[in-house]
Design brief:
CATH superfamily: P-loop containing nucleotide triphosphate hydrolases
Distance between the termini: 9 Å
Number of strands: 5
Radius of gyration: 16 Å
Order of helices and strands: EHEHHEHHEHHEH
Helix content: 40-55%
Strand order of the largest sheet: 2-3-1-4-5
Strand content: 5-15%
Structural class: alpha/beta
CATH class: Alpha Beta
Mean pLDDT: 92
CATH topology: Rossmann fold
CATH architecture: 3-Layer(aba) Sandwich
Shape: globular
């Protein structure tokens, strides 16, 4: 099974691109499973301000879904996969909401699962544009934990630092029109035999 992760800044187009990829692969006759962050977060009872507990619950739930479905699909697409665990550990560290030991343990714990990815698509967006887009979203409450300038700046810095360590990474500008971003993603995944 091929495993594609979409990670990156909030409101950069991760969910849109994951869904476009799923539909394109299904048109090619592939069996595709899409695991979304929103679907996993909707089942969680741990509040986001409990950073470490939230991360452990989220990534643990993702592991359970992975092992439940890994034999049932040609391609699994994960919106916010395990590669994000190291990024979020950096942000938690920068925001001083976990200890150095806890952040390191989070990276170590989920690092081996991040290596399952055949490719990681990193959706980039300036922190101020991410926040602007989030505030304009009418269908979701504004997340006061992660959606603030300090948090988003730390998040952008971590993606910049961590991207070279992701499995087969592709950086995509989140301001590109969705069809153009999709064409770049599909072309890269095909050229690298990631799908």
């Amino acid at each position: 099974m091929k495993l594609i992760e979409f990670v990156g800044m909030p409101r950069s187009g991760k969910s849109t691109q994951a869904e476009l990829l799923k539909k394109a692969l299904e048109r090619q006759g592939k069996t595709v499973l899409l695991l979304t962050d929103r679907e996993h977060m909707a089942r969680m009872k741990v509040p986001p301000q409990e950073s470490l507990a939230f991360a452990l619950a989220y990534y643990g739930q993702l592991l359970d879904s992975y092992y439940t479905y890994k034999e049932k699909a040609d391609v699994m697409i994960i919106d916010r996969g395990w590669s994000d665990a190291a990024v979020w550990a950096d942000v938690y560290r920068a925001m001083k909401v976990v200890s150095e030991e806890e952040a390191s343990a989070l990276v170590e714990c989920f690092g081996r699962f991040a290596r399952l990815a055949t490719a990681v698509v990193v959706m980039r967006l300036a922190p101020e544009l991410s926040l602007e887009r989030h505030r304009a979203t009418l269908h979701e409450e504004v997340d006061t934990v992660a959606m603030n300038p300090d948090w988003l700046t730390a998040l952008a810095a971590s993606y910049q630092a961590r991207m070279a360590h992701f499995m087969n990474p592709l950086e995509i500008d989140g301001t590109l029109p969705p069809p153009e971003a999709h064409a770049r993603i599909s072309g890269f995944l095909e050229a690298t035999d990631s799908i």
